[in-house]
Design the sequence.
């Protein structure tokens, strides 16, 4: 009945407006008023009658700015100027960016490890580092013990500015890991130092201890990679063929047979990555609770688009579902992120006390996995 009424209204509008200039024409009710202001004229300012004493001075409520055209400007149809092309900030469009988490700093590359390996390797060779050991299959190489005066002048200055003694020896390990997102990489630089002439072996720490040195080398490596990207880099066929670093994202089941997505990251980075994956999916994220590690999704509604607006006719004919209809068809679930050891487990629940059906959970987690790659 509602659709029939809408069609009748549309037919009435079409029949009444056909050939009628009073509605859509230059003088019609729905005419374009975008140039009306050009026809406006200035009048004399309002004056207070001479027999009335004004306690407060009368100033224009909406004064005309001094830098606008006056009333003598030529009237007529105003032409909107063509927009100028947007300038692209090369720093923002780079494939390489610096990431921070507390004291840790690393480079995020929008490229697979096979493309990042030769760029990072070349940077250290160009700056005087001697490669002691390299394992392209695992994306890792280390340098020998060297003094600052054996390195390039720019790197030597950076090490000196970061507090490294001129007679100290430094060794660097570079690790290139697959990123959480598909076709991305993460580059970590860790260094150790010892007094010159010492023969003691110093193991690389699990976390950065030479903050100044590691930060300086990471910043310089980032700048070098960005420059190399503009010139066009190469690809390591060995790294591409044999790279055997474990995948950071895997779909499995827990002890009860429920699907579980394992993400090999800390909780903060996994939360951000899963959020981006859900935004790229087909379902609507209705709410989030960061403290509980929960994303609330509705499988019955598609993801919202930033510029999505209801159409004129859809609103007119009542095609937009009512709140009651939306609630009746809703399929709401929770995507939960839990820290387990050195990784994060992603599960799907119907509510806090009930896990989602296995087929639903596997479907949701598979989509997340596909976007994490």
Sequence:
């Amino acid at each position: 009945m509602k659709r029939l009424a809408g069609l009748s209204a549309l037919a009435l509008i079409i029949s009444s407006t056909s050939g009628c200039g009073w509605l859509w024409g230059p003088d019609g009710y729905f005419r374009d008023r975008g140039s009306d202001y050009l026809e406006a004229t200035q009048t004399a300012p309002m004056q207070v009658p001479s027999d009335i004493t004004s306690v407060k001075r009368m100033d224009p409520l909406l004064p005309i700015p001094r830098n606008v055209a006056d009333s003598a400007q030529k009237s007529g149809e105003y032409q909107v100027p063509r927009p100028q092309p947007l300038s692209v900030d090369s720093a923002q469009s780079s494939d390489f960016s610096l990431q921070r988490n507390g004291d840790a700093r690393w480079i995020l590359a929008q490229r697979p490890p096979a493309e990042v390996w030769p760029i990072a390797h070349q940077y250290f060779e160009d700056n005087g580092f001697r490669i002691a050991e390299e394992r392209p299959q695992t994306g890792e190489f280390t340098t020998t013990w060297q003094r600052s005066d054996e390195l390039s002048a720019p790197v030597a200055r950076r090490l000196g500015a970061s507090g490294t003694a001129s007679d100290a020896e430094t060794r660097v390990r570079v690790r290139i890991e697959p990123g959480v997102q598909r076709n991305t990489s993460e580059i970590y630089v860790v260094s150790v130092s010892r007094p010159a002439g010492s023969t003691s072996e110093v193991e690389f720490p699990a976390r950065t201890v030479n903050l100044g040195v590691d930060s300086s080398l990471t910043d310089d490596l980032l700048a070098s990679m960005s420059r190399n990207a503009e010139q066009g880099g190469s690809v390591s066929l060995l790294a591409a063929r044999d790279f055997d670093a474990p995948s950071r994202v895997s779909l499995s089941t827990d002890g009860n047979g429920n699907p579980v997505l394992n993400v090999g990251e800390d909780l903060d980075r996994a939360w951000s990555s899963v959020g981006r994956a859900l935004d790229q999916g087909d379902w609507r994220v209705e709410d989030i609770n960061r403290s509980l590690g929960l994303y609330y999704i509705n499988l019955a509604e598609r993801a919202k688009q930033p510029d999505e607006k209801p159409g004129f006719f859809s609103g007119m004919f009542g095609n937009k579902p009512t709140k009651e209809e939306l609630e009746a068809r809703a399929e709401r679930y929770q995507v939960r992120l839990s820290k387990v050891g050195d990784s994060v487990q992603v599960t799907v629940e119907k509510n806090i006390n009930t896990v989602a059906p296995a087929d639903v959970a596997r479907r949701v987690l598979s989509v997340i996995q596909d976007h994490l790659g």
User: Anything to note?
Assistant: The chain has two domains: 91-242, 249-372. Confidence is low (pLDDT under 50) at residues 85-93, 235-246. The domain at 249-372 is CATH 3.30.310.170 (TATA-Binding Protein). The radius of gyration is 32 Å.
